[in-house]
Design goal:
By secondary structure, this protein is of the alpha+beta class. The protein has helices at residues 29-44, 82-100, 117-126, 133-139, 154-210; strands at residues 2-9, 15-18, 52-57, 60-67, 70-77, 150-153. Strands 2-1-5-4-3-6 form a six-stranded mixed sheet, sandwiched between helices. It is elongated and about 105 Å long. It starts with a strand and ends with a helix.
Length: 211
């Protein structure tokens, strides 16, 4: 069963739309939403290159697809068919691009397309019962395969992002410290050169006066 749906722009992690009634029956809904936001942040930094992925988190699993610089993500029960979850996302993607495609890049505020919730709720209902003839047909569709889509753990995915951030920060700090060291070394060389010239002047100036 689909528990949560969120759509965000990959370039900066800006949330564009979500299911407004998502998470009402979840005890830790806010925890999962924070994980989604952290994931969007990682994606905006290019930490995950896969355009399709499944991410395990507690008793649930996130599924996402990235298309046209937009990430479409849903959280489902682990028992919910992976194939249906991704076809649900495909339906959202197709409609979102059709209705809002021209405005995605220029959206400046969070949830600029919140009215898309109407389509999210309608589509979610059609994927609710996995035993309907429509959904059974989707499950049997051999042209749509999900076996090669990678499945990872949420801590692993978010941890990689944190480690990359730490490496980036360390690299920036080392670069800054190297520049400071170079500046100090340059100043020291100038001071040594000045002292050396001063010593030469003191040494040879009396000789020049005698001559």
């Amino acid at each position: 069963m689909v528990k949560m749906t969120m759509i965000a722009r990959v370039t900066d992690g800006l949330p564009l739309a979500e299911g407004l009634d998502d998470g009402r029956d979840l005890a830790d809904a806010e925890t999962y939403k924070q994980q989604v936001k952290a994931l969007f942040k990682n994606l905006s930094k290019g930490h995950n290159e896969a355009s399709r992925m499944s991410i395990e988190t507690g008793p649930y699993i996130f599924h996402y697809i990235i298309e046209g610089r937009v990430c479409y993500l849903t959280m489902c029960d682990r028992a919910y068919p992976k194939k249906l979850a991704f076809q649900y996302l495909e339906d959202l993607k197709n409609e979102f691009e059709r209705v809002n495609g021209a405005q995605i890049e220029t959206a400046a505020r969070p949830y600029a397309f919140i009215k898309f919730d109407t389509f999210i709720q309608k589509t979610k209902k059609s994927f609710l019962d996995t035993r309907t003839q429509r959904n059974i047909a989707k499950l049997n569709d051999e042209l749509y395969e999900v076996h090669q889509i990678m499945t990872r753990n949420v801590q692993e995915v978010l941890g990689v992002g944190e480690k990359l951030d730490q490496v980036s920060q360390m690299s920036s700090r080392l670069t800054s410290e190297s520049r400071i060291y170079a500046d100090k070394a340059r100043d020291l060389n100038r001071h040594v050169s000045f002292l050396y010239m001063e010593a030469l002047i003191r040494k040879w100036a009396p000789v020049a006066i005698v001559l």
